[in-house]
Amino acid sequence: MPRTLRPVWLAALAAGVLLAMLGALGVLAPRAAAQSTLGQLASAAGGRYFGTAVSNSALTSDTTYTSILGSQFSAVTPENAMKWDTVEPNQGQFDFSGGDQLVSYAKQHNQLVRGHNLVWHSQLPGWVSGLPLNQVQAAMENHITQEVSHYKGSIYAWDVVNEPFNDDGSYRSDVFYQAMGTGYIADALRTAHAADPSAKLYLNDYNIEGTGAKADAMYNLVSSLKAQGVPIDGVGFETHLAIQYGFPTGMQQNLQRFAALGVDVAITELDVRMTLPETSAQDTTQADYYSQVTNACLAVSRCVGITVWEFTDKYSWVPGTFSGQGAADLYDSNYQTKPAYTAVANDLTAAAGGTTAPPTTAPPTTAPPTTAPPTTAPPTTPPGGSGCKASYAVSSDWGSGFTANVTVANTGSADTKSWKVSWSWPGNQAVVNMWNAVYSQSGTAVTATSQSYNADIPPGGSTSFGLQATYSGGNTAPTLTCTAG
Known about the structure:
The chain contains 15 helices and 18 strands.
């Protein structure tokens, strides 16, 4: 994970005026038809998100940055605002201002927030490393509890432990490992779950995208944690790539083997750097790498989303860390899209049922429509012996939007093979994201259907899915109908 150095629409304008303006700017693509953002396309392609890391300094000073950020992306991750050295620079003294700023922005723009990160060997204040080893566990648990509790209900997922492995698959000998051995990871996950049971909990690392000792070590760790009943929901694959090196071997298969353990997988920090100066040939190779990553995720049903580590070269961590390298992102430093953007948009469009990428336009100034199109057909009438019940609970409400969790319980005498939950909103609520289910909304009517990995619920068992939605006025809970197949 990078350190500090590493790290919609102009509806009021007539169509002819808009086209003329964009043409004058030289950014109008040949087709000026339906315009979809990366976030909308990812949502249509199986209910995924497409997110970006966010620089808080740019968030407060660069209006072009915030305009693209608020329109193109459906999820955000703080680059540094939630890391230990920022949040708790001195023991027991917490500063949540940077994280609060990003969470507020995300809520205004109906975006998911990935919390990053809670426990990491880097960007760690000196007081932690200087603690007697018998005090480290209490300090770690207190930090996790305070931060996760502060953001309870506002964070979709946390990177609980970041980069626990060396490249050879051995554990990093940081202060947490020295104090608690490998048990610090399970303890961190349990502590985070106790502070916010609704948040998804991830382990996150780099160079685990393809096969190798480090990927195997992470696989074995996740397998062990699952066997112990430790709360772990996902694995984050950072995916910091470089075109001068080969593409990770067997990435799709590797993502799939982790998903088979019963966890979500996500691309959490994607960028593809190159040796400068940038050339058109390098741009082509970079676009191919971005495309391969996108398609690997699209091919795995439990790959829930992709996050790029900054979307513009203007704020990339790469030049400050890798001398003579850069140009790693989807947009250049002048906010023009690159071939990599077109490649990703093409792949998402195809997966969503289209054939071509949306046109490239000048940065939009207001939020795009938020309701995603349906992605799959609902299941058919259930056979005898099956039944289900769905319960609904709002986990966070900020006045113009909210998140909610739906639990689906098998009330029948046989395993379910599929399930569908349907309801009609009492007000003007509109779903903008849903995870662990495929959804559609038409007017006030919503249907949510099972994914391949959570369709089978044993008698007496249950599964759950979450959603994020907007509203104005009242937010009365709907009445749910559940059908099992």
